[in-house]
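User: Hey, quick favor. My workstation is busy. Could you predict this chain's structure for me?
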Amino acid sequence: MKLVKRIVVVLIIAFAAFYLITRPQDAANAVQGAVGAVWGAGVAVVDFFTALVQG
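Assistant: No problem, here it is.
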């Protein structure tokens, strides 16, 4: 099972490197989208707790 996991990880890293080298603009857009989603989720959590404290 460890061998299969290692092979999958290597394939994912190889695909990411290939994508980064062949389409750097699209890779940057994907990263920006992911960061934006995480940031938006963080803001939503802060807004929730702020509303909860304010009553």
